[in-house]
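Researcher: Going back to the complex we discussed earlier. I've cleaned up the inputs and rechecked each line, so this should be the final set. Can you rerun the prediction on the complete assembly and write out the structure?
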Amino acid sequence: MASASPSQAAERKPNFVEESLYEVHKKVHPRAVTGIFATWRWALVWFTQLVYYGLCWLPWNGRQAVLFDLVERKFYIFGMIFWPQDVIFLAILLIISAYSLFLFTAVGGRLWCGYACPQTVYTEIFTWIEQKIEGERNARIKLDAAPMSARKFWLRAAKYGSWGLLAFWTGFTFVGYFTPIKTLWGSVWSFTLGPWETFWMLFYGAFTYLFAGHMREQVCKHMCPYARFQGVMFDPDTLTITYDTERGEPRGARKKGVDPQSIGKGECVDCGICVQVCPTGIDIRDGLQYECIGCAACIDACDQVMEKMAYPKGLIRYSTEHAIEKHWGWKEIVGHIVRPRVIIYSTILAAICIAFVWGIATKATLRVDVIRDRATLAREVEGGLIENVYRLHVINVSEAPHRYAVSVSGLPGIDLVGDRIIEVPPAGNKSVTVQVRVPPESGRKGSNQIFFDVKSLADEKVAVHEKASFLQP
Amino acid sequence: MLRIVWVLWPSFLVAGIAEGIFFTVIDPQELYLFGEPVHVSQIATYSIGFIGFWAVCAASSLLTCFLQRTAAEINKGVGAAPPPAKPA
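Model: Rerun complete. Updated structure for the full complex:
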């Protein structure tokens, strides 16, 4: 497809350009925008980043509140401790995230992309730094085109330097969720970081720098799987950023305050500001496109222009396909939020959330695995008793040390030899070997069902009743 | 550029998932390397594991990219002329 002539390529055919070449990408210099949706976006930048940069410093019971300790294979989240056996919770959490995404997308379009996705959030921050150092859109375009000079060099150095610092801090914070961050902070200053900690810090930092500083909208357009399939969650009642073609067209320039009808035009003054503010460089007036991340920057921008022109706001607005077609107001749009798709997503989501909370609330704080010693099946010991040997693996999932009493039942005359009290430190585990003895006449030949009871001495409710089999020769 | 993304990015995502599942199920201390228990630290095992998964997945993506080349691209103008490209 290399046959595209320059004149063809110059035409506004985004899809064609997209497919015809690998690197036609033109740098997008989004113009800064203010307004209600920009405020929302910044609020979410602050919220998500305060959580991300701050949470790892929060102490809890003398340890880090949120720590994914890979070495010990334990995840600490405030008062809860998750072990590899708890992977089901992670799976449920992922399902909840997926259904939330489906639900939000069906109702409000790409809300995630526009406001909360790390790619959007970091691009927002990096663009803000760029704007503070190099100036507004026009100044940046000029600087890009200008030959290298002392001024350009210093501006670039300041920008890349600031990006680098922020990226490094982001990488440091990331590793701080896996290695206690206070220790990590000490290691940075005493130059005693482990090789892999250094590697992951630089790796994550470098990718933040690359994605938020240089690749930006390209990540959304070429790398994000969600951007590709979000369309299937859309229906004609989904809120999307919409240009009201009927009201806007035919577009054209005019003097301030001119009544569009008097000059036979629509309300779009064709100022192009909606294109200039777009972080992905598209023209929303061409209709809904998969490149649109739903950031609503064009809404803010267009509303300001409409205000200046003394036209009603909302030429570009959150609306639905049906609403535009049938000239619905907000009342009808809101009325159509409740529809089968939304009901199904919400019901499933609510059910899974309840199951998740219930599961967490009733999560056992004690786990016992009973493993029969396979080396000796059964043997006769003093007094003619028959003995089987078991290994008890006791896992204390709570944050307090526990002493557990072990007992055995299920056969007449059954008793155990060995430790009856097992002490396990907080979030620790212990393996003990116990011998179980029964009289030879007890039970039948072959396998008999017996039960181990492990009970906390401090709290009777913390108890496990575990099945095992006893072999009678 | 886009080709590099096609090879490295999907493999990165899949390697992340593979890493998560693999090491949830298997404790790195239970691994054996050529019959010897693994001696390196857990962090190193996890890291090498991830890079290994990534490399394997990237190799698969690379092959996919390689096999996607059309006949015209391979023939380089020899044989029948390629059909005119259709703008999307």
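Model: Worth noting: Confidence is low (pLDDT under 50) at residues 1-23 of chain A.
Researcher: Good, that matches what I expected from the previous run.
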